[in-house]
Amino acid sequence: MPTSSSTITPVEDTSLTGFYRDMTVPEKRTFWACATGWALDGMDFMIYPLVIGTIIMLWQVDAGTAGLAGTVTLLASALGGWGAGYLADRIGRVRTLQLTIIWFSFFSLLCAFAQNFEQLLIYRALLGLGFGGEWAAGAVLMGETIRAQYRGRAVGSVQSGWAVGWGLAVLAQAALFSLLPAEQAWRWMFAMGALPALLVLYLRAYVKEPEVSVEARAKLAISGDRPSILEIFQGPILKTTILASLVTTGCQGGYYAITFWVPRFLTTERKLSIVSSTGYLSALIIGSFIGYLVGAWFADKYGRRSLFLTFSLGAMVVVLAYTQLPLSNELLWVLGFPLGFFASGYFSGMGAFLTELYPTRLRGSGQGFCYNFGRGVGALFPFLVGYLSQITTLANAICLFALFAYVLFFLAAYGLPETRGKVLHADG
C-alpha cells in the first residue's frame, strides 16, 4: 500500500498530447521503446485468433480444442508475468524486458514450424511465459520513468500500440492469405512474430533503468532486506492484491472473450470470407486505437477508477447489441467501432493504476502478479466460449462470458481507491 512518503501532484496540462511535448529525452525514448514493444506484442498475440479457422480446418480440431491454445498461452503468461515482475525487482526493469522479448520472439518463430497441434500447443505455452513477462517489465518501466502528471496519458498511449499491432496482424493476414495457400500463409504469420527481437538492440543502446528503481534496489542491497515474492499477500497489501487481481480478471476476461472469437464469428455466423471480414475487423481495430487514446486522456483528466467504471458499462451495452440484436452486416460494421472503443480503452489506465497501487520495492511483483493473474483467469474465457459455442451460438457464448467479466470488472474497480497524480518514491 502507499506509504506516507507518497505525494500527489496536480495534473496541469490535461490535453491529450500535452504530455509528449513536455517529456524529457529519456522519457521519450522509453515511451517509444515500450510503445513499439507493445505493438509487436499485440501483433504476436493476435496472430493465433486470426489463423484459428485455418488450424481447425487443416488439423481437424474442434473449436474448444483450438481455443485451448489461446487459453494455455494466457495461463503461461500469468506465470511469466509474475516471475518477470519479481525478476524486475531484483535485476532491473530494462534487463528483464530484454530477456522476455527475446524469449517470446524465439517461440513465436518455432510456432511457424509446428507439425501438429500438440507441438503448436507447447510452443504457444512457452511463448506465453515471455509474453506475460514483457508487459510486467514494460509497464513498471513506463510507470516509473514518466512523471506523475503525465503518467496516465503516456502509459495509456503506449497501450494504443496493441491496436497498431493488431492492425498489422490483420493486414498481414489479408496479404498473406491472398498471395499464398492457407497451409503456408499461417506459418508465415507466426514467423512474423519473431520481429520483436530486433527491439532489444534499441533497448540496450538507448533505454535506461528508472532512477527510482535504481535507488530502491540500492537501499535494499545495503539493508539486506530482499522483498519476498509472497509479500504482496501479507498485511494491508493483501486487500489491494485481491481487488486488483479481480479488476484485471474482469477487464481481460471480457476483452479476450470478444477479440479472440470475433474473427471466427464473422466468418461462420456472418458468412464472411477471411478477406472480406478484414473491413469489419478494421472498424473494431480503429475503435480500439481511438479508445486507447481517449482512455489515456480520461485516466489523467477524471481518474483511473472513473475510466474503469465508465468503460465497463459502455462495453456491456455494446456487447449486448453486437451479439444479440438482429443487425444487418452494414450496421454490424458500424457497431465494430464502439465495440473496439469500450472493450479496449480501459486498458489505458491499467498500467499506471497498478504502478501507483504498490510501493517501489514490491511494484514489479505486485503489478506483475495482479495483471497476469487476470490474464490467467481470463485465459479460460477463449476455451469456455469455444466449448459453449458447441451447445449454443457463438454469439451467445461471447455475450455470456463478456458480460460476466465486465460486471466483475465494475464491482472490483468500485472497491479500489483513486490513484491519479501519485508521485512515486524509492521507499513507497
Task: Describe it.
The chain has 428 residues and is mainly alpha-helical. The chain has helices at residues 18-21, 25-59, 63-91, 93-111, 117-145, 148-179, 182-192, 199-206, 211-223, 237-259, 262-268, 278-301, 304-324, 329-345, 347-357, 363-378, 380-388, 394-414; strands at 7-8, 422-423. Strands 1-2 form a two-stranded antiparallel ribbon. Helix 2 (25-59) runs antiparallel to helix 7, helix 2 runs antiparallel to helix 8 (199-206) and helix 10 (237-259) packs antiparallel against helix 18 (394-414). The longest helix is centred in the N-terminal third of the chain and has 35 residues, at 25-59. It is globular and about 60 Å long. The relative contact order is 0.18. Mean pLDDT is 84; it is low at 1-11.
Number of strands: 2
Rg over CA atoms, rounded to whole Å, is 20 Å
In terms of per-residue confidence, which ranges show pLDDT below 50 for 5 or more consecutive residues? 1-11
Helix-strand sequence: EHHHHHHHHHHHHHHHHHHE
Beta content comes to under 5%
Distance between the terminal alpha carbons, to the nearest Å? 8 Å
On the 0 to 100 scale, the average pLDDT is 84
Spatial strand arrangement across the major sheet: 1-2
Shape: globular
Helix content: over 70%
The largest pleated sheet is described as:
2 strands, antiparallel
Structural class: mainly alpha
Number of H- or I-type helical stretches:
18
InterPro entries: MFS (IPR011701), MFS_dom (IPR020846), MFS_trans_sf (IPR036259), Sugar_transporter_CS (IPR005829)
Pfam families: MFS_1
Membrane topology: Multi-pass membrane protein
Transmembrane segments: 31-59, 65-84, 96-115, 121-141, 162-180, 186-207, 236-258, 278-299, 306-325, 331-357, 369-388, 394-416
